[in-house]
Structures are given as structure tokens and as C-alpha cells.
Amino acid sequence: LRTFRTLRILRLISSVPAMRVVVDAVLKTIPAMLSISALLSIFYYVYGVLCVEFFGEKFPEWFGTLPRALYTLFQIMTLESWSMGIVRPVMEVYPYAWIVFVSYIVIVGMIALNLIVGVIVNSLNEITQSKNANNDL
């Protein structure tokens, strides 16, 4: 029960108006986030299946099964040692593998994740504008 006392810090959200605006913006974006998450999951799954089919035979430790491929793709998505650790060894065997990996990073890493940031910023902007309009009245 003592560990739950750390949750008292959450009272800051209700006492600091700027934090309340940010939390309202994040809560308002949940439906859009679910749509973006579904889209990300579709791309993630498609690329996972592609990687298992293309690279699974020669690189079973990274792409041998779908769960391994999804874990490796998550590592690539976060850009954690993706180039030297994964892509370059794969490209020694499959020279055109860069097309799969670069397209994955561009689609998932750049476009889809920026959609999440854009939705949150847009929601934050709408909430700020509506509060300013209410203050003007």
C-alpha cells in the first residue's frame, strides 16, 4: 500500500492548469490514436511476414519466426543498432534488402509515428483555441 502513495503526485495534474490542458489533449486523441495504432499494426504485420519469407531461412535468429521478425522490426523501428547489427549482415546475403528496411523505416518510423505527434499537437491546439475563445467571452 505504501507504493500507492507515490500516485499522489498525480494530484499535480489537477492543480497545474497547463498539465490539465496536456492531459485533456491526450485523452481527446484516444480515438485517433486507436486508428493510427491499427494502421501501424497492419504495416508491422505485413513487414513481419515479408521478412520471415525473404530473410527467415538465412537469418533464423532475427527472422526465423513471426514473433522474432516482429521483435527485430521493433528494434529497427526504434533505430536501435539496426544498421550495423541487422541490416548490413542481411545485405551481405541479400543485396536488395535495403529496399525492405528503408521503406519500413520511412513508412513506420517517419510517417506513422509523426501522425501520432501531429494528432496530439492538433488536439492541444484545438483545446488551447477553445479555452482562449471562452476567455474572450
Report on this model:
The chain is an all-alpha fold and 137 residues long. It has helices at 11-15, 17-28, 30-55, 60-63, 66-77, 82-93, 97-136. The chain has a domain at 29-120: Helix Hairpins, CATH 1.10.287. It has 7 helices and no strands. α3 packs across α5 and α3 (30-55) runs antiparallel to α7 (97-136). The termini are far apart. The mean pLDDT is 88.
What is the H/E order? HHHHHHH
Fraction of residues in helices? over 70%
Structural class: mainly alpha
- Percent strand: under 5%
Indicate the mean pLDDT: 88
Q: What key attributes describe this structure?
A:
137 residues; Helix Hairpins; 7 helices; 0% strand
Task: Furnish the topology, listing elements before pairings.
Layout: H1 11-15, H2 17-28, H3 30-55, H4 60-63, H5 66-77, H6 82-93, H7 97-136
Quick summary:
The chain has 137 residues and is mainly alpha-helical. The chain has seven helices and no strands. Helix 2 crosses helix 7 (97-136), helix 3 (30-55) crosses helix 5 and helix 3 (30-55) runs antiparallel to helix 7 (97-136).
